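fold-stage: in
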Amino acid sequence: MSRIQARFGELAEQQRKALIPYVTAGDPQPDVTVPVLHALVAAGADLIEIGVPFSDPMADGPVIQAACERALVHHVSLHDVLDMVREFRRTDAHTPVILMGYLNPIEVWGYQGFAEAAAAAGVDGVLTVDMPPEEADDLVSALHERSLDAIFLLSPTSSEERMRKISQSASGFIYYVSFTGVTGANRLDVDAVAKKLDVIRCHTELPLGVGFGIRDPESAARVAQVADAVVVGSALVGKVAGLVDRPGSIPAELAATVSAMRAAIDAQAVT
């Protein structure tokens, strides 16, 4: 059982919903990332998504695109990201870590070599935004051979055939994008999300996480009413953008945001 599966099992027993913050590795500078990861866990994160900087993040809006640019100024590579995970694991052996990014750096490395290195560093799951499930068998096989979860995206336009295919390939959890478009937009319709999640649950028993459009404690709590996990990215990365001149304050500022979301999610669970 992977760390991701174990964590969702623990949360289910506790009747709690997962909070999954996203940050871009190396933003705004490499030495900030690991302290941020620890601060997020202390603030109530159940799993963490780490964005791998990429020069053409086509699924991301301006906020995360700018974060990638800030990280790439420091030449942060996939190898560097794994080094950050390895450093994080020195004092945290329990929090699941998911790499989120694009296929090109993984293909350059090679699926087998990447999967071996990721597992050795302490990664638990990989989400490649631009890898369609129809072409993912070799990567999924390499990940599963090393007990890494392959995480896939579904969206409001996903057909039931696509849901079935992804349910066959995915492990850990499935990430549902709450609306079509790029990250950072504000078009969250929780009722529509709930209806789509009901359809997806007809095809899988995996936990369902929802991301895109979660900007504050209120929206996090609303999504937690219908999903198994709440994924928050642009709201955090946007805060980083405002603190590039004060990098030492970034861990505490992001932790405060996550803590407020954690409290709101837990409060709705008991009302």
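fold-stage: in (second)
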Amino acid sequence: MKKPILIGCGIAFVFLLIIPFMIGVGIYNGLIQIDEKVNKEWAEIDNMLQRRADLIPNLIETVKGYAKHEKEIFTAVADARSRLIGAKGVAAKGEAAGALNGALSRLLAISERYPDLKANTTFLRLQDELAGTENRIAVARTRYNESVERYNTKIKRIPGVFFARLMGFEKRSYFEIKDESVREVPKVSFE
């Protein structure tokens, strides 16, 4: 009779050791999973911030180049038109008309070769790209902060609170913009 009691006590003792170990493993794996989710969400924010950093200067320079090119042609067309209106005599009007035709030909040639190369289209594209990037950053920031909330809650609640510090899990910070100047929408200048 003593032998079955000893076996029962031994089995109970093993279960008392195995059960906390298994619970600890489960908690650790859960913390690892949510920690990796937070890391993934932060990488997405970082990716979008880099996208913004790469996108804005490139698009602005592209738009500046197109706007400058179009500005030169529109200026040439406007100047040629003014010379035609102000020209006196047949020779002067012919010369001004030739200049206007040349400016218009360049404008038409550019429009024919590059139908999308129009300032309004380019400016709209820039606005769409900037708005899209800002929206992506906002979504990534929201997802990151939600993941941080889940993670911080998990390491503060029982039983996570007992294991988190022992396993090296510490509270994560939210992605907050504290500098008010950073909260402003990026200013785009075409000067």
